[in-house]
C-alpha cells in the first residue's frame, strides 16, 4: 500500500497506484479536497486484465467529518447494482439455465399475463419489457417483500409494446431478474450472487447487507431533487408512471429495511474495489483475479446491441446491450467507444468495462450529485483515465 498523499485534508487519500496512473491519483485527491461541490468520501479503482493497478479511497464517511473513509467502507451504489444483477443472469445464461431468446414466461409462467407472453429475457435485460415500474398505488415499503412485488409485476399490463423501445427499469429490474433467479435456482438473488459470484471472486459486494456489516456503511448524502418537473408530465406517460411507481427517496438507502432488503436494481453495497473486481470479468473475457467465472463467448453477448433510441423513462438516447448500456456519446461522452459497456447509479457512481483494452474503472462515492446517469466527478476521472498513456495503446490480444 502506498503512503497517504498530502492533499491538505484531514482524511487523506490512501491505497495503491501503479506507475503510469499517478495523474489519476492526483485528480482523485483533488476531487476530495475541493469542498462541497466535490466529493465528501469516495473510492476509485482500475483493474487491467482482471488485476488491480489502482485502488484508492479517501475523505469522510459522514458530513460531520468524524469518520474517515476506510479500506473496507461500503456504500449504497444505487443502480450500479444493476450490473451485478445482470451478471447473475449472465452466469445462468452461461450455464444453459437461461436463454435470452426465450420468453420470460418459459420460467415464470405468471409473467405471461396481460399480454406479456412474448416478452423475452433479452428484452427484459435491455429494459424493453414494457414493465418499468409498478402500477399505482405503490410505495417503497412494498418493494421489501420481493415475491409479492414480483407477483404484482407479473400481473400487470405493459406500459408500451414490449420490444418497441427501452424504458429504464429504475427500481424493479432486480425484482424481475431476481424472480427468474429464484425460480431457476431456489435462491434469492442476493444469496445466489453471494455464493456464485462474490465468494469465488472474494469480493466485498452485497445485494442484501448483513446487520454485522452496517458498521462499515457510509450513509449517502441526499442529492437535489430529480431533474424532472412532475407537474408538467403527462400522468399517463411512461416517465411519470415509472418515477412515481414508486417515488424514489434517496434517504431510504440509509434505513435498516433498505439495507437488508436486497433491492437488485438499486440496493447493492460495495466500494470501487469490489465493483471493479467483479465487473472486470466483463472486460477480461470472463476472468478476474485468476477465476474464470464466464466463458468468453458468453461475455461477448453483452456487447450485442439490443435496442437503440430515446429511452421512454430517461428521455435521452441510449444503446442497450444484454444487461449493460453501450457507448452513448451524446449522454456520457467520457465513456470510450468500441467494445465497451457501462452503467452507473443515481448520484454519480459508475463502472465502465472496456473489453478492447481489458480495463475496468469503478468509482463509488457517498455525496450524491444531481442527475441519474453519471456526474461531474466520474466525468473528469473517466476522461483522464482512458486517455492515460498507460491505457491508450492497450488492445486485447
Strand percentage, roughly?
5-15%
| Average residue pLDDT | 94
User: What's the CATH superfamily, by name?
Assistant: DD-peptidase/beta-lactamase superfamily
Shape: globular
Number of discrete domains: 1
Going by helix content, strand content and strand pairing, the class is alpha+beta
Q: Could you tell me the radius of gyration in angstroms? A: 20 Å
Distance between the termini: 30 Å
Mind sketching the topology for me?
Elements: E1 14-17, H1 22-33, E2 41-48, E3 51-59, E4 75-76, H2 81-94, H3 121-125, H4 146-155, H5 173-185, H6 189-201, E5 206-207, H7 238-243, H8 256-261, E6 268-270, H9 272-283, E7 287-288, E8 291-292, H10 296-300, E9 307-310, E10 317-320, E11 325-326, E12 340-344, E13 350-354, E14 359-365, H11 376-385, H12 389-392
Antiparallel strand pairs: 1-3, 2-3, 2-14, 4-6, 5-6, 7-8, 9-10, 10-11, 12-13, 13-14
Question: What tags apply to this protein structure?
Answer:
three-stranded antiparallel beta sheet; single chain; disordered N terminus; 397 residues
Describe this structure in words.
With 397 residues, the chain is of the alpha+beta class. The protein has one domain (73-367): DD-peptidase/beta-lactamase superfamily (Beta-lactamase), CATH 3.40.710. Helix content is 28%, strand content 15%. It is built from twelve helices and 14 strands. The protein has helices at 22-33, 81-94, 121-125, 146-155, 173-185, 189-201, 238-243, 256-261, 272-283, 296-300, 376-385, 389-392; strands spanning 14-17, 41-48, 51-59, 75-76, 206-207, 268-270, 287-288, 291-292, 307-310, 317-320, 325-326, 340-344, 350-354, 359-365. The strands form four sheets. Strands 1-3-2-14-13-12 form a six-stranded antiparallel sheet, sandwiched between helices. It has a three-stranded antiparallel sheet with strand order 4-6-5. Strands 9-10-11 form a three-stranded antiparallel sheet, with no helix packed on it. Helix 2 (81-94) packs parallel to helix 5 (173-185) and helix 2 packs across helix 6 (189-201). The longest helix has 14 residues, at 81-94.
Amino acid at each position: 500500500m502506498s503512503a497517504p498523499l498530502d492533499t491538505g485534508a484531514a482524511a487523506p487519500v490512501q491505497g495503491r497506484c501503479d506507475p503510469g496512473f499517478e495523474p489519476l491519483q492526483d485528480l482523485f485527491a483533488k476531487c476530495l479536497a475541493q469542498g462541497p461541490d466535490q466529493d465528501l468520501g469516495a473510492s476509485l479503482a482500475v483493474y487491467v486484465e482482471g488485476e488491480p493497478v489502482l485502488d484508492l479511497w479517501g475523505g469522510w464517511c459522514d458530513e460531520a467529518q468524524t469518520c474517515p473513509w476506510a479500506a473496507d467502507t461500503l456504500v449504497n451504489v444505487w443502480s450500479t447494482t444493476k450490473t451485478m444483477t445482470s451478471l447473475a443472469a449472465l452466469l445462468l445464461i452461461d450455464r444453459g439455465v437461461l436463454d435470452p431468446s426465450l420468453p420470460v414466461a418459459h420460467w415464470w409462467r405468471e409473467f405471461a399475463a396481460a399480454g406479456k407472453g412474448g416478452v423475452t429475457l433479452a428484452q427484459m435485460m435491455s429494459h424493453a419489457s414494457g414493465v418499468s415500474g409498478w402500477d399505482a398505488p405503490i410505495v417503497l415499503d412494498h418493494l421489501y417483500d420481493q415475491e409479492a412485488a414480483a407477483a404484482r409485476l407479473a400481473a400487470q399490463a405493459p406500459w408500451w409494446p414490449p420490444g418497441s423501445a427501452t424504458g429504464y427499469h429504475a427500481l424493479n429490474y432486480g425484482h424481475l431478474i431476481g424472480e427468474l433467479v429464484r425460480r431457476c435456482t431456489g435462491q434469492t438473488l442476493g444469496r445466489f450472487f453471494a455464493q456464485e459470484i462474490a465468494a469465488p471472486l472474494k469480493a466485498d459486494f452485497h445485494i442484501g447487507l448483513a446487520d454485522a456489516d452496517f458498521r462499515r456503511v457510509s450513509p449517502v448524502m441526499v442529492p437535489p431533487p430529480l431533474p424532472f418537473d412532475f407537474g408538467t408530465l403527462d400522468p399517463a406517460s411512461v416517465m411519470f408512471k415509472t418515477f412515481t411507481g414508486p417515488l424514489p427517496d434517496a434517504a431510504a438507502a440509509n434505513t435498516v429495511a433498505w439495507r437488508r432488503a436486497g433491492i437488485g436494481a438499486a440496493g447493492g453495497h460495495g466500494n470501487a474495489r469490489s465493483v471493479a473486481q467483479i465487473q472486470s470479468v466483463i472486460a477480461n473475457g470472463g476472468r478476474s483475479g485468476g477465476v474464470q467465472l464466464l466463458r468468453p463467448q458468453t461475455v461477448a453477448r453483452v456487447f450485442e446491441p439490443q435496442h437503440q433510441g430515446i429511452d421512454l423513462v430517461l428521455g435521452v438516447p441510449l444503446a442497450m446491450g444484454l444487461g449493460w448500456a453501450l457507448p452513448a456519446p451524446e449522454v456520457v461522452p467520457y465513456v470510450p467507444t468500441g467494445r465497451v459497456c457501462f452503467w452507473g447509479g443515481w448520484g454519480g457512481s459508475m463502472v465502465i468495462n472496456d473489453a478492447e483494452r481489458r480495463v475496468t474503472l469503478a468509482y463509488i462515492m457517498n455525496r450524491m450529485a444531481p442527475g441519474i446517469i453519471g456526474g461531474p466527478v466520474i466525468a473528469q476521472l473517466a476522461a483522464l483515465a482512458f486517455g492515460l498513456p498507460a491505457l491508450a495503446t492497450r488492445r486485447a490480444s
